[in-house]
Amino acid sequence: MQATQRRAPTVTEAARRAQIVAAAIDTIADLGYRQASFARIASKAGLSSTGLISYHFAGKGDLMAQVVDETVAAMSGYMAERMAGCTSAAAALETYIRATVEFVAGHRRQMKALLEIFMNGGMSYGSGTELVVLSPVETLLRDGQASGEFRDFDPRVMAAVIQRAIDGVPFLLETQPDMDLGAYAAELVTTFGLATRRSSCDARDC
User: Fold this and answer.
1) What is the mean pLDDT of each run of 10 residues along the chain (206 residues)?
2) What is the model's pLDDT at position 1?
3) Alpha carbon of residue 24 to chain centroid
4) What gap in Å lies between CA 136 and CA 141, rounded to an integer?
5) pTM higher than 0.90
6) Cβ neighbours, 10 Å, residue 101
């Protein structure tokens, strides 16, 4: 039996879905995940009924998954554009750190919504997800070791430490909304630059 192919959304349907996702982000950012009911999201979106949300999304879990997917996709696109011109592992690591913090700074409401969804069990995060999250950083670190730019260390452990330092930014913004994110990124760049670089003594095996 041939599987039924899902129909691609029309331009109008895609625009409506985007409107609902945007309203969901604003509602979660303003009221929190648990208070983000379809009724409140519909009101934020200016919709006449929650049925318009149910038409496009199977349930709250489906809508939350779309919020997560769109935010992650936007971040991935931003990161890819920023890192495209990097010619060394050290430059790539610095750009990765700065660009991620910059994205968080410029998308605070999306990141706050993502944090609320994560903290309230609205998204699954298992060992497989962790490896996917760490993979770009770990690959970057391994490339730096292979080229001789970085010293010997466990790249997965270092990737986890770097990623957790970056992932902590939305948490910090909850208690310190006026925090200087540029200074924070600069401090991370210095810290992990020192932690990863190969010293002249390493090169001489002294």
Assistant:
1) 58 90 96 94 94 93 92 91 92 95 94 90 60 78 95 94 92 90 96 90 56
2) 38
3) 17
4) 9
5) no
6) 20
- For residue 71, how many C-alpha atoms fall within 13 Å in the half-sphere facing its CB? 27
109 is written with which tokens?
């409401």
- 160: CB partners within 8 A, 6+ apart: 134
Q: Quote the CA–CA distance of 130 and 189 in Å, as a whole number.
A: 22
For the chain, the farthest-separated pair of C-alpha atoms sits apart, in whole angstroms, at 73
* Separation of alpha carbons 47 and 99, rounded Å: 36
Does residue 185 sit in helix, strand or coil? helix
User: What would the DSSP string read from start to end of 125-136?
Assistant: --HHHHHHHHHH
Q: Give the integer Cα–Cα distance in Å for 77 and 94.
A: 17
- The one-letter amino acid code at 24 reads A
Q: Is the dihedral of CA 40, 45, 49, 54 positive or negative?
A: negative
